[in-house]
What we know:
Blueprint: E1 3-10, E2 13-14, E3 22-23, E4 27-29, E5 34-36, E6 68-72, H1 73-83, E7 96-99, E8 111-114, E9 118-125, H2 130-136, H3 141-148, E10 153-159, E11 161-163, E12 169-173, H4 181-188, H5 195-200, H6 209-227
Parallel strand pairs: 6-7
Antiparallel strand pairs: 1-4, 1-7, 2-3, 5-11, 6-10, 8-9, 8-12, 9-10
Amino acid sequence: MPSVLSVNVGRARSTVHSSVRVTAIDKRPVDGPVEVRAPGSKRDGLGSGLVGDAICDPRHHGGDDQAVYAYARADLDMWAAALGRALDNGGFGENLTTAELDVTGARIGERWRIGRTLVLEVSCPRIPCRTFAGWIGERGWIRRFTHAARPGAYLRVVEPGPVQRGDAIEVVDRPAHDVTIGIVFRALTREPLLLERVLAAGALPAADEPEARRKLERARQAAALSARPAR
């Protein structure tokens, strides 16, 4: 049965890999329940959806659409084998390390009940950044992570509540469309023509739609140019 293997929170620490010079990507498992609530907007909200978890770069992280970050233990294990080193729960900066749950295959907008009261909604994939690359410390990490297309999922808070290790995860609602975290990630990174499918399903946060439409139009123009016969 899908479940939470660990709940992970981070504290601010200095880094040379972020423009703000601090990061909380070093998430560590905590004992006992952690309260989860909607943090509000990126600009003037609470940052993370988890009480006690720091968000150091609110321009790019946190806020309602990125309130909680989940990553599957199976995917961490895949990366551990590929990198030849152990990766602890929280090793990718995730708040929830999950078991027996296909996070990449989760549909945008599907809802998870965790424990008795907490309900989260799948919102968008994680896009790798320079801070993440610096934290992992592997050459070509952003390119490698992008090609693997196992990004993990950001989630919104629909109903607040506590979360702790061992809580069951139940998918309680699933949209009729088939646009998954994996598809959105590919659309936003290496396969922009997929944005047509993503936008048709209404599967992006509203704030991200204008740029996605511009990106799709550029991809269409590039595809049309490449299809022209050579003179």
